[in-house]
Design goal:
By secondary structure, the protein is an alpha+beta fold. The chain contains 5 helices and 5 strands. The chain has a 5-stranded mixed sheet. 20% of the residues are buried.
């Protein structure tokens, strides 16, 4: 496990109130593969709160990713949904949990809010 991955999971409870505003509730098991080793994270989500631990257990959904890809996700260099669609990672179970969890990942570097871009375009025309 990388230090960045550890810091990412440690940051989740503090960030949850702003990220998990919807009615999401359930447990997501995240398996991070690195060669012949797999790290397990169990993430319990509910509106406004999240807990993570380094254990395995009953889960409503399971997401597998390589640890290398996960490091790219937590820096915004890759997108979780695109990785699943390209079969770079796999997912099974309650898709709502995956869609909610991916909101914890940052936007790609250089990404701008479309509303901000539109306001600037209107301002230039005036």
């Amino acid at each position: 496990m990388t230090e960045a991955t550890q810091r990412f999971f440690e940051s989740l409870p503090e960030r949850a109130p702003t990220v998990l505003r919807g009615l999401v509730a359930g447990t997501l098991q995240i398996d991070l593969g690195n060669g012949h080793q797999t790290e397990h994270w169990l993430v319990r989500m509910r509106p406004g709160a999240i807990q993570s631990s380094r254990e395995r257990g009953a889960a409503d959904a399971i997401w597998y990713s390589s640890s290398t890809l996960f490091d790219r996700l937590i820096t915004g260099e890759a997108q979780a949904l695109a990785a699943v669609l390209r079969n770079e990672s796999t997912f099974s179970g309650d898709v709502v949990l995956f869609l909610a969890f991916r909101r914890f990942f940052p936007d790609p570097p250089g990404t701008r809010d479309p509303c901000e871009v539109a306001r600037e375009a209107v301002g230039r025309r005036s």
